[in-house]
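=== RUN LOG ===
request id: a7f3
mode: sequence -> structure
chains: 1
length: 947
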Amino acid sequence: MLEVKVFVLESVLVVSLCCFTIPAAAEKTTNPSEVNALQAIKSKLIDPMNHLDAWNNGDPCRTNWNGVLCYDTVGADGYKHVQELHLLNMNLSGYLAPEIGQLSNITVLDFMWNNIGGIIPKEVGNISTLQLLLLNGNKLSGSLPDEIGHLPQLKRLQVDQNQLSGPLPRSFANLNGTEHLHMNNNSFSGQIPPELSKLSNILHWVLDNNNLSGYLPSEFSNMPNLRILQLDNNHFDGAQIPASYGNMSKLFKLSLRNCSLQGPIPDLSRMEKLRYLDLSWNHLNGSIPSNKLPNNITTIDLSNNHLSGSIPASFSDLPKLQNLSLANNLLNGYISSTMWQNKSFGPTARLTLDFQNNSLSNILGDRNPPANVIIRLQGNPFCQNPSQENIKYFCGHEVGGSNASSNPTNQSSVCLIQECPYEYVPESPFKCFCAAPLQLDYRLKSPSFSYFPPYEDQFEMYLAESLSMDPYQIFVNFPIWEPGPRLRMYLKIFPAYNSHELNKSEVLRVRRKFMTWDFPTDNFFGPYDLLNFTLLGPYSSVDIESQRSGMSNGALAGIVLGSVACVVSISGLFAILIIIRRQATNYQHLSRKRATSSLIKIAGVKDFTLKELALATDKFSDSSQVGQGGYGKVYKGVLPDKTIVAIKRAQEGSLQGQKEFLTEIEILSRLHHRNLVSLLGYCDEEGEQMLIYEFMPNGTLRDWLSAKSEGCLSFVARLHIALGSAKGILYLHTEADPPIIHRDVKASNILLDLKLNAKVADFGLSRLAPVPNDEGAIPNHISTVVRGTPGYLDPEYFLTQTLTAKSDVYSLGVVFLQLVTGMQAITHGKNIVREVNIAYQSGIVFSIIDNQMGPYPSECIEKFLALALRCCKDETDERPSMSDVVRELESIISMSSESDMSLPDSTTSYSKNLMPSSSSACVSNDVSDDVSGSDLVSGVMPSLTPR
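=== RESULT ===
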């Protein structure tokens, strides 16, 4: 019976195939110039999985591969025109051909999350119909073409997470219809053109993690519809926050973290919609304005500034507040318990109050906060008085802070698993509703909250309404915060009750909805990233070829006539059936293989083949080897798109199990900071395990400090290398998720890019930092087998085998001593820490200063040495925290005055007989400590030549 069904099905298939082989006069063909353009585009792309093979047959929108989504429409000229092209996350590399500008009718160009390099062709500016230009998550370099500023219908431009540089084009002021500009995580530089304030329709402007400088244009306050402005991690050195920003009454989020801003905080009480304010890690001074901020604000982060005075009483009357961080300032006075007493906490609510490292002396009122309130007071005078009531709640481990998810218990706990071939719908009102979900990898790019559970139901409702579904059909899985902060999650979209699977039209409708951003704008949840939308499970065989605008009567007549002819000819086609069956079997096998591969794909990290890396390194020739470490050998490789990379190839004794290897890569892929080496990809094939990083042309700090180095580093350059290294490690300790202790900080693991910015490398020995236990307490150490490098190894860790974040502080302190003295960590049995301590205590410290460093101000060198020696204290508790290290280094740098002492040029070499400068201020800084997307390298590098 089964064979009969198969025979009938295949007969119908033959009928269908035969139908489409009969010419029909009214059948439309794709515009020839667009077919030629797509062929040219394909020729410049490297397509390892042959996704684009369908472009060869003259009908580019007809494809069965679920990575390609293509839509066309019939134009007035009688031809079909490609209207949308989506090539999301298809492992494409190569570069974009100029012929892309010949797709003159296209509205959506989507190349997101591939590995495409080269520049953005200026010919993109010829596509007057273009509405969405989505190029984020690639390796594009060069500057943004001015021509993009002349696209009259452009609504969304996404170029984030590339390697783009240069200034922001002034021509973008012409993008009157543009609502979203996502440009974060590149290397854009220079002044933000004030002319861009003419963008009257802009809603979300995300520009964080670039190299922008100059001042903050006050004209931004004139942008009538701006809702989100995120400029974190740029370099507006000495600039102030314009007072006019207080007039931005429609702004939901203002984030200016780590922008080198100075001056006072303006009055922001008129920003009626403000939900999220982050001004941390700047040089803001004065008192915190006492004017009341909007009631709906969830997040206020003013930490790591120079703010003084008392905590405003108005902070006690913010009912939606989730996070208030004032840590590492100069605040004094007291804390009022009304901050937590005046709130009504729901079951999923949480409030974090971080007041660490100020001069706060008392808590007025109730000292018994609720379980869901976290209060941090370490480093204040209050904590120095052991007689204070309940002091352990505020100065020891954190109080409260339940991290319980708001997700309900999965119904599978009360339903029979064997009766459901898919999974039970977690939030369904119908008991044991079994169905197959669509699954997508999704990220909120700039949300206006710090803690998700209270808003999870609201978010699911928003998506459900946008998709015209019931709320139980939407389920948020595994939400996790990533740097930014950005909230990543896996969404599951289930069919309606009484249907186990979504039908094809629903799959296509939902998929297209997400891929065209066809959602009503929600400013609170902010813009989103679609990281992956691979059709899995029962949806893996869905044919997602183009949705056409309709079929003409002539075409229908041709199909009917063709069907009659096919029925007559069936008897002569039995032989073809056998071929079709074999091809179908092979295709299904290939599809399953590809689906399995997609399951282990890690977003943002390329899975290289051994063949690709062998080609890049001339078969791992000796001439390509640039170093060797404990992990294995390091090779310099050149990819087909001319990108230079460093390839770390594990030796046999360093190989891990596949699961462990992929887990480590998944963790490394989440680490994104300007002072960390970036992981580009990996290879796990044929018994090989390799990690691929961007190449860093200026090698390691150890090379620069060695006696063989022909280059030299000025004092100001060394200070900034110290600060960059400290910031990278601070990120690992406090912002990485999960937190990480490096365990092998040393001069050879600090790499220098083209502009001598420091980037911490080599996490091969890293360990995850302690996480809260079942009672909510965080252990202060990890028990582990001692690993590290002699000379840099924390003595307490060595003796007790208890690893803490202060172990990295010790190792970095040794690096600081090397920066000052030029000595190795251990030389002829002499330890650098002991030698410098002896010289420091004997008052002859200037006799051991590196004579290659050139002139330096004595006061700053003393402060730097004192900090380094505190980092190298034997007792863990006597060492500063990494945040304190960053703060003190910034303080030393801030002492700098205008001076001619700057970074030497490529031929400068200082005299070895210069005495310490008598100046009381540090030298000025000509070195940027933030070059996002610069050329990097991993591990051990070759000896240096003069710069």
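=== NOTES ===
The CA atoms of residues 512 and 518 lie 8 Å apart.
The first strand starts at residue 45 and ends at 46.
=== END ===
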